Amino acid sequence: MPASTPLRSPRRDATENRESLLAAARVVFNRNPSASLEAVAAEAGLSRRSVYGHFASRDDLLVELVTMGARRVASALESVTHPDPLVRLALIASRLWREVEGVRAMAIVAVRGPLAHHTAGALAAIRANVRSAITDGQADGSMRSDLPVERLARLVEDTALVVLEDSTEHPLSARDGDRLVMLMTLAVVGLGWRDAGSVIDGRAELAHTWPAEGDQP
Amino acid sequence: MPASTPLRSPRRDATENRESLLAAARVVFNRNPSASLEAVAAEAGLSRRSVYGHFASRDDLLVELVTMGARRVASALESVTHPDPLVRLALIASRLWREVEGVRAMAIVAVRGPLAHHTAGALAAIRANVRSAITDGQADGSMRSDLPVERLARLVEDTALVVLEDSTEHPLSARDGDRLVMLMTLAVVGLGWRDAGSVIDGRAELAHTWPAEGDQP
DNA sequence: CGTAACTTGCACAGCTTTGTGCAAGTTATT
DNA sequence: AATAACTTGCACAAAGCTGTGCAAGTTACG
């Protein structure tokens, strides 16, 4: 562990190892959120003992991992904006999918588990964005008005997680997953499936552009 | 523990204690699915040691608890039938809500956790019923046809669990929960919110009849 | 090169939990 | 009242984990 006041600057390989540990933790905890530090260290090619050279405790590692992830997602979504609240919501869903795909299990832990508190700050902006989209949508009549905003916002969020979870066990191409998460989000806020489909198909912003390598057709 | 070949019949209080343990486990595990046997025994007013007089292992207790629950739910839902697939699906959702409300966390463990295997048998009938409703609904055009039956069925199931989860943290009157789980189910299969509302409001079968004691308005 | 920074292995304490064995009690049942 | 059935407390083994101390190595860096 780095001395309290390092006389020399920290070594390069040390910080690399720190990164390795975080990366390993991401992989391992994504497979099994309650895996041991032994497993994480092994994945990183280091010894369990040396984990404590970088993180004071298991919790420390977990918290850092999770807050980093939350910040990453938040920064990827902060730019999302669109006059039409339906499109805005769909955009949020879609971007979220792309960010979180591959870290699904971790994401769920980060949002649901005991560490939710640590991510709440970073995710607050996204949640606010969702709420405002819903408020606008209810105001202009494009979204259901039979449920209060707060509950609807939670249901939207949970539904996105459901799609993530389901696609973990029953894989989906990136393109289909992208579309599905949008469809389900729009369904929750009250759109019939044909309407939801045309909202997506109508806008170039919502077309699945990015990756070409799909898992399954 | 009862002898391998009891010379006398088992005592009444013993079987009562067995029930107490199951009931306690229901409560405790519902609060925290990974609680210890100590906690369960305490809730039942017994000693940890005596748990092993009734169940060979922690897993034994858990499995028995969960399969009992699954059977209970299954038997409550087996009679559900209706010519209109939308109504059939809504009925399933509604009955399920009434059965599972109050055991939400356990239910989620039972369906998702490592014990899912033990409940699969009992729940197969329900799942088949859901699938057939969806198939019928897709055939007559009342449900979305842009997703395969299997995936849609899973999404329906997961969505019901989401409503259960959300209502655990943000309580709902029995009446509202009942309605919400139906609304969300119908939303997933493709109905717009007004259509879903009229499906529910139109039929007396779907009116919330049962309990008068709601939690919150 | 020299030294501080880092890794490692081992040992150890500590915690929590499961599952058993056993002796001593209590209680339902015959 | 006799006795089998049951509960209990205690002690114990075993396992799995976290976190620390320390001595002996490597390795980057100035």
Question: What is the rounded distance between the termini of chain A?
Answer: 49 Å
Mean pLDDT of chain A: 91
Q: In sequence order, what are the helices and strands of chain A, one letter per element?
A: HHHHHHHHHH
Radius of gyration of chain A (Å): 20 Å
Structural class of chain A: mainly alpha
Uncertain runs of chain A: 212-217
Question: What would your notes on this structure say?
Answer:
- The structure is a homodimer of 217-residue chains.
- Chain A has 217 residues and is mostly helical.
- Chain A has ten helices and no strands.
- The first copy, chain A, has helices at residues 12-31, 37-44, 48-51, 58-77, 85-100, 104-112, 116-139, 149-169, 174-188, 193-202.
- In chain A, α6 runs antiparallel to α8 and α7 crosses α8.
- Chain A starts with 11 loop residues before the first helix and ends in a 15-residue tail after the last helix.
- The model of chain A is unreliable at 212-217 (pLDDT under 50).
- The first copy, chain A, binds a DNA duplex (30 and 30 nucleotides) through α1 and α3.
